[in-house]
Amino acid sequence: MKWFLRLGPVMVLLVVVVFYLSLGANDRVAQPIAYNHKIHIESAGLTCTDCHSSVQSSSAASIPNLEMCSTCHSEQPISESAEELKLIEFVHQGTSIPWQRVYHVPDHVFFSHRRHVVIARLECTTCHGNVDEFTEPVAAQFLPITMDNCMECHRENNVTNDCLSCHR
Ligand code: HEC
Ligand code: HEC
Ligand code: HEC
Ligand code: HEC
Ligand code: HEC
Question: How does the average pLDDT of the chain come out, rounded?
Fold first, then answer.
């Protein structure tokens, strides 16, 4: 009984540490292909809207899939990368790439890219960071999607924080 009492606090500490470590791991999203934003903007000369094609016209920005990627990656690999071979395999199988979403508002919240990018003229970097410098897939939120973060910027810009403008 005595040894148990002495070990008790150590066990509690261990459980707490393991719990926090697992929380940290869940915060980062793993992607099926190690997509590199920097290469595509610098070497392939693409812009954000070439791939996230509805970012200026609707609420969702959209994530590109096979059709878009296969214009450059379909038969002969153009790089030395094993990740490109994975992509070509998806293209041959015709199965879409299961990209995992990193940024996502709950169903009860309305968010429009068009409103923020075209009307408010905000840069992508304000909410998403320097994605054009990312050599690894997007894994975590830059500006965390919380009600406080939305409201803080609205307050600074004199935009309404009426509950019903975001919760429709
Ligand atoms: C306009 C042409 C073009 C399109 C469209 C394109 N890529 Fe690429 N991709 C390139 C070029 C250029 C490279 C760099 C080749 C090299 O290593 O010089 C590249 C390299 C890659 C690599 C290897 C990366 C590395 O780290 O070396 C992967 C993986 C890749 N692309 C995935 C994708 C995916 C996924 C899509 C669709 C969302 C896509 N590409 C769309 C031109 C394109
Ligand atoms: C005011 C902050 C803000 C700005 C500015 C912004 N985004 Fe977003 N982005 C978000 C939020 C919030 C989500 C989650 C939206 C949802 O779940 O419907 C998101 C989601 C996304 C997604 C996930 C896919 C999708 O269909 O929504 C992509 C890709 C994206 N943004 C790209 C961009 C690009 C490219 C720009 C610049 C042209 C941009 N964003 C500007 C806040 C922003
Ligand atoms: C060649 C196509 C391509 C271009 C160009 C491109 N992206 Fe992406 N983007 C992707 C792909 C594929 C993913 C999914 C893999 C990942 O998360 O890295 C993605 C993911 C994202 C995400 C995370 C979306 C989410 O919620 O999971 C954001 C934010 C984003 N891109 C912003 C940008 C911005 C800003 C630019 C311009 C600087 C840009 N992208 C240019 C293909 C592209
Ligand atoms: C960096 C600043 C910034 C952030 C962060 C931001 N917004 Fe906004 N938002 C604006 C601006 C500026 C406008 C005004 C655009 C206009 O003139 O219509 C706006 C407008 C809106 C509107 C339209 C309001 C109306 O007049 O009806 C909604 C809805 C909205 N935002 C939702 C959101 C949500 C949800 C989030 C968080 C996920 C968010 N916004 C985060 C700057 C921001
Ligand atoms: C500028 C946009 C915006 C406005 C204005 C806004 N909300 Fe929210 N609200 C959000 C977002 C985004 C979330 C989701 C946050 C998350 O997932 O962590 C949210 C989540 C919630 C939730 C779910 C619980 C939670 O914390 O996730 C409740 C309840 C809520 N809001 C109530 C309200 C009330 C009441 C008002 C008016 C006083 C309001 N909201 C105004 C953006 C907004």
Answer: 90
